[in-house]
Structure formats: C-alpha cells, structure tokens
Amino acid sequence: MARLQIDKVSKRFGTDYAVREVSLDIADGEFLVMLGPSGCGKSTLLRMIAGLEQPSTGRILVDGADITDAAPQQRDLAMVFQSYALYPHLTVAKNIGFPLRARRRSRAEIAQRVREVAGTLELSALLERRPAALSGGQRQRVALARAMVRDPGAFLMDEPLSNLDAKLRSATRAELIALHRRLGATFLYVTHDQVEAMTMATRIALLNAGRVEQVGTPEELYDRPRTAFVAGFLGSPPMNLFPAEVVSHEGALRMRADGIDAALGLSGGPDDGTAVLAGIRPERLRIDPAATTVRGRVTMVENLGSEELVHVATGAADLCVRAPRPAGVAVGEDIGLRADATDIHLFDPDRGLRLTWQEPEPAVQDVAAASVA
Ligand SMILES: Nc1ncnc2c1ncn2[C@@H]1O[C@H](COP(=O)(O)OP(=O)(O)OP(=O)(O)O)[C@@H](O)[C@H]1O
Ligand SMILES: [Mg+2]
Asked: Which parts of the chain are coiled coil (predicted)?
C-alpha cells in the first residue's frame, strides 16, 4: 500500500523538457490513469517513479518518504513496461517467478504463485517456453504476470494491454480491476485507450507536452473539461470545437457563429461581442427539422452499425453528430440541430481555458495544483 506524491518533477533531455513541473498526489489505493498523446512524457514520468530515470528537478515521495535518489530495487513498486522487458534466456515460468526468487521465497511458494497467476492470465500452457517463442500479446501477459506475482505497494503499468486483441484486452481489463479491488494497492497506469481510462480510473491525469492539463474523475474530465485540449482529447469522436461570439440579445446571452445561434442560459457573463471557442459533444446534438440552433448541410453519413455519424457543414464549422441508426438524413440535405444550453462549453480562444463565468467553480479536485505536504 502506498501513497505516491510527485512534487514539481521535471525531466530535461538536452535542452528539451520531456516532463515539466508535474505535481500529482496519488492516494493509497487509487487507480490513477495517465492519458495523453504520444511523446507527452507518460513513460518518462513512470520511469522516474520506478527509479529508472533521474528527475532533473523535483521530488518523489512514497508514503511521505523521499525516494528521489533511492535505487529501483529499494522502491516497493512493480513496473510493467511498454516494451515488456522480459529475460530472453529464462522460461516463462522463471520470468514470472523472478521477483519472488530475488526475494528468496521458498521453491514451493514460488511454484504455487506462478501457477496461480499463469492460470489467471491464460499462460498455463506456455510456462516452459522462452519469450522469443511467444506472440506480442503473450509476452505482454508474461510481463503483467511478473508484476502480479508479488504484492507491491504500487503497480506502475505502461500500456500493459496495447498488444492484446479485443477479447483478451477486455478480459484482462476486468482482471486488473478485480486485482485492484482485491489488493487495494495503488495503480499508476498509462494508456492511449480511452475506454480503459474511463472504465478503470478512479482519477485520470491528462498530460500534454510534459504538463498536466487536468486531473479529476473520468466524469469531471468528460463533462467539465478544464481546457479545449482536454475537450478535444476525450471522447470518440471528440467534442466539436469552433470559433464563435457571445452576444447579448433581448437581455439574454447567446452564442453565435455562421449558421449557429444558441441560447446560453446565463445570467451574468462577458461583454457583448466576446470571442470564444465553443464546444458541443457529438452525442449532445440532436437532429430536428424545425430546429434553428444550428442550420447546415449534411456532407457525410458514416454507419457504425448501432449508430450513425452525421457530418453537418454550417458556415462556421463542420459538426459531427452522433445519432441512433437510422439517422434519417441524406447527404446534401439541409437540416436543423438542437442542443441544450448546458451542453455548450465555452473556452478562451487564446489560451484554451474554460471560461469561468459559464458556471461556478467546482470543489477543488485538482490536486496537481495542491502543494505536497
Ligand atoms: N532517453 C531520451 N533521450 C532523449 N529524449 C527522450 C528520451 N526518452 C524520451 N525522450 C523524449 O521525451 C519525450 C517524452 O517521451 P515519453 O517516452 O515519455 O513519451 P510517452 O508519452 O510515453 O509517448 P508514447 O505514448 O508514444 O509512449 C519525447 O519527446 C521523447 O522523444
Ligand atoms: Mg510511452
């Protein structure tokens, strides 16, 4: 069991920052998922916590003790690498049992734990093979098994399911959720997969170019993105974002762009004519022939099986609408769309920050901003 604190950690390679002033406070027993585009610093951050990379500045604490300079084996953490990092000369069984042998457990105990974990991850038939004779997905499961065989204070996992097929991925995902519940251990988990992030995380930290954009529950990030980057990163397809203007009309505020005119339901707010970046999620737009909020022309209809994605061009934006199938519209048709005022997100067009006058600030959840005790 462990609380992990990352206190203003930066990592520079030459003159470039891979990680910039990142602070995170991960409570004991949390399942924190780190999300972000390729190259944003996720692996570097994980490697620094594991002790495989030295921070340029900042501190890392486990249960309040500063471990920034501790050797990897002195940290009670198990890591699953993006690249598996198996011992090529050892069999699967020996690879899985390695952490227990290093801790001088009895032969009988090691054999039993290896059998259990191998069974859980469907590796029982492969125990005598060497890594070279395994598929990518099998190697990944061996790497997971090696971490799961012991009972560390925290698990650090770098895209541990990326090479598994859809069925095995969803089974292993359930396995990890169960493992987390059973052990009550702290998980710090890196993924590209939004489904993994939304389903597994107690909180998500979204990174962008070495910095934390937002930390919060999956619902907070999805429903109240703090920045336009978060809004555009989460969701598939992502939130529609387009430049617009806030205008005051007959005593009420409206958001307007070419082909778009929506009530905002705000009492107070910005000056008439304020430029904003507006956002509406595809599933929050509804096709309605009589609607005047959005008027546009259908440019494409994509059939996803259960749903359809309808692309609608207004003068100002190309909007994606997610609708039950059949959406009942054809390419070239002029249609209307409706959206509730509460589903419209507004951001500062320069810095991309959510405009605070839109709604009251929530209780402070953003521990990235909180200082480490
Ligand atoms: N040893 C190194 N020397 C120089 N630059 C490095 C080194 N390791 C990482 N970087 C750079 O640091 C940045 C962050 O890399 P990192 O591997 O942490 O990204 P990531 O978020 O894990 O990406 P991905 O999702 O593709 O795995 C990248 O620009 C990368 O090129
Ligand atoms: Mg990586």
From this structure: none
d(CA 174, CA 177): 5
| 210 Cα–ligand 1 center, Å | 10
pLDDT digit string, tens, across residues 96-120:
999 999 889 999 999 999 999 999 8
- Which superfamily is assigned to 4-228 in CATH? P-loop containing nucleotide triphosphate hydrolases (3.40.50.300)
CB 265 within 8 A of CB 342: yes
Give the number of the ligand closest to the Cα of residue 54.
Answer: 1
Residue nearest to ligand 1 atom 20, measured at CA = 39
pLDDT digits (tens, 9 = 90+) for 190-244: 998 888 899 899 999 999 999 999 999 999 999 999 999 999 999 989 999 999 9
User: Which residue, among 220, 161, 159, has the nearest Cα to 189 in the 3D structure?
Assistant: 159
Question: Which ligand sits closest to the CA of 36?
Answer: 1
Spell out the domain ranges in the chain: 4-228, 229-353
CATH architecture of 229-353: Beta Barrel (2.40)
Residue 229: φ, ψ to 5°: -65, -45
Q: What is the pLDDT of residue 161?
A: 86
User: In angstroms, what is the span from residue 157 Cα to ligand 1's centroid?
Assistant: 16
pLDDT number for residue 357: 62
